[in-house]
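To: structure subgroup
Subject: Chain for Friday's discussion

All,

I'm putting the inputs and outputs inline so they're searchable in the archive.
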Amino acid sequence: MMKSIFGILMALAAWITCNAQQPVFRFDFGPGRVMKGYTPVTASTRYSDETGYGFDKYSLSLEAVDAGTSNPLTSDYITSNKPFYFLSNSQKVIMM
């Protein structure tokens, strides 16, 4: 009896661990208006353990561009004339 209860508890713990919700990050890149529900990312947003996202320390010469359109998700962006890398601790990321 005790072994079967232990087995059920272990299976339940494994199921909970496998099905735990990962946070979903939604990022809006650029200097313009930020879409509701999205996290703003500017050219100076550096990665930190506290936030769990940002550009790595080797991403230099980043430029924020505002295209001036009315849609907050597509009106601005971050670019560079050199390779740059955006990091996130989350497995679920939406970047616009």
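Points worth raising on Friday:
The mean pLDDT is 80.
Residues 23-95 form one domain.

D.
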